[in-house]
Specification:
It is a single chain. The protein is α/β, with parallel strands linked by helices. It folds into four domains: 132 residues, Rossmann fold (3-Layer(aba) Sandwich); 64 residues, Helicase, Ruva Protein, domain 3, CATH 1.10.8; 90 residues, Zinc Finger, Delta Prime, domain 3 (Up-down Bundle), CATH 1.20.272; 74 residues, DNA polymerase III clamp loader subunits, C-terminal domain (post-AAA+ oligomerization domain-like). It is built from 21 helices and five strands. It has a five-stranded parallel β-sheet, sandwiched between helices.
Length: 421
């Protein structure tokens, strides 16, 4: 039996869902197709977002012969055979679109084999890859192709596909069921169709697909979760407050809840970067370094390997010493700025790039820190009306205890008259 995803493969661009950033009205690829000005291209994106479908529609809309290739199954011999046929076709006025799925699996010699035919225009090459073309496609071929980055389908777009699937199957399901399938599929339309097809089979003669039927297909509990609703914010709040409270076990629990519910991993990474800044700050300056490293790891590894990096970060942040002193210091500075007159920059702090500005007094009285002992001066850097204000009040926790000791020394010197070095 033909899989549901194949049965519902769009037959025209009007039926195609997603990729509005390149296929919307006036967007680059859409314009290319409408003007029938095809050039060789690489479609780069995650699985199940419509790369093969898009290549087929491009060829169909341009009245080109469509020749699909699989980099897993094809070799140099097959490539040369198709290239020879395409060359003969061009002499007869025929155009050929050669679609290579998983083009990154071709080695250098195999990719080189396409070059002369792409250069002469014997073929329009469309390669599909889930890997970064900059690393996986040889530079000579890449320079002759335009790269289009396809995005994962969002929940709304996958839900549109699922409603078409329900109609095809003759089944019904609530919006919450479709949303859970879409979240579980994580932007992969093919996966979403496969889940829906399995749930439809589990329903048997019943018309409605229920939560129990869905759970039986994905072999796990369907958790209450809405990426744009209250439960989403409840869970991330619980994660944040568990980390702030130094409860590593609770942090892992709430993180696991969000991961199992299909939360966007990069969203979680962003939130934990914020936690490192807001709740740990200078008490452990490495927390922000760790958070940014994990953000890169999650982006690089994807799922499920990147999930372990998120867990590691949640534990690190939870056990780190906590301080919101840096966070509060900026709030205090902003409050003062908003409630007071914006005084001009003191003359001794102004830059004097011209002779005239020096004559006007710009830079007069500036004391260059490196000319003084310990690079400390008593020069006031705040405007007169707020001189001496101390916004930052470090805690006595973690690295901030040492920072506080150093800051006290600096402030003591600034209140006195340091000796010149």
């Amino acid at each position: 039996m033909t899989p549901l995803a194949e049965q519902l493969r769009p037959q025209s661009l009007a039926d195609y869902v997603g990729q509005e950033h390149i296929l919307g009205p006036g967007k680059p690829l859409r314009s290319q197709i409408e003007r029938d000005e095809l050039t060789s291209m690489i479609l780069w994106g995650p699985p199940g977002v419509g790369k093969t479908t898009l290549a087929t529609l491009i060829a169909r809309g341009s009245n080109c012969e469509f020749v699909p290739f699989s980099a897993v199954l094809s070799g140099i011999k097959e490539i040369k055979t198709v290239m020879a046929d395409s060359e003969r076709g061009r002499r007869l006025g025929l155009r050929t679109v050669v679609f290579v799925d998983e083009i990154h699996r071709f080695n250098k010699a195999q990719q080189d084999a396409f070059l002369p035919y792409v250069e002469r225009g014997d073929i329009v090459l469309i390669g599909a890859t889930t890997e970064n073309p900059s690393f996986e496609i040889i530079s000579a071929l890449l320079s002759r192709c335009r790269v289009y980055a396809l995005r994962s389908l969002n929940v709304g777009e996958v839900s549109i596909l699922l409603r078409r699937g329900l109609q095809k199957l003759g089944k019904t399901a609530g919006d919450d069921i479709l949303e859970q399938i879409a979240i579980y599929a994580n932007g992969d339309g093919r996966t979403a169709f496969n889940i829906l097809e399995s749930a439809g089979a589990a329903a048997g003669r019943d018309v409605e697909i229920t939560t129990a039927m869905l759970e039986s297909c994905i072999n796990r509990k369907v958790l209450l979760y809405d990426k744009s609703g209250e439960e989403h914010y409840n869970l991330v709040s619980a994660l944040h407050k568990s980390i702030r409270s130094s409860d590593a076990d609770a942090a892992l629990y709430w993180l696991a809840r969000m991961l199992e519910s299909g939360e966007d991993r990069m969203y979680l990474a962003r939130r934990m970067v914020r936690m490192a800044v807001e709740d740990i700050g200078c008490a452990d300056p490495r927390a922000l370094e760790q958070a940014m490293a994990v953000q890169q790891a999650v982006h690089f590894l994807g799922e499920p390997e990147g999930d372990q990096a998120l867990a590691q970060l949640a534990i690190y942040l939870a056990v780190s010493p906590k301080s919101d002193a840096a966070y509060q210091s900026l709030n205090a500075a902003r409050a003062l700025v908003q409630s007071s007159h914006a005084e001009p920059v003191p003359m001794h702090l102004r830059n004097a790039p011209t002779k005239a500005m020096k004559e006007w007094g710009y830079g007069d009285g500036y004391r260059h820190a490196h000319q003084f002992k310990d690079a400390l001066t008593d020069m006031e850097c705040l405007p007169p009306s707020v001189a001496g204000t101390e916004f930052y009040q470090p805690s006595d926790r973690g690295a901030e205890k040492r920072i506080g000791e150093r800051l006290a020394e600096i402030r003591r010197v600034r209140r006195g008259d340091p000796e010149k070095a």
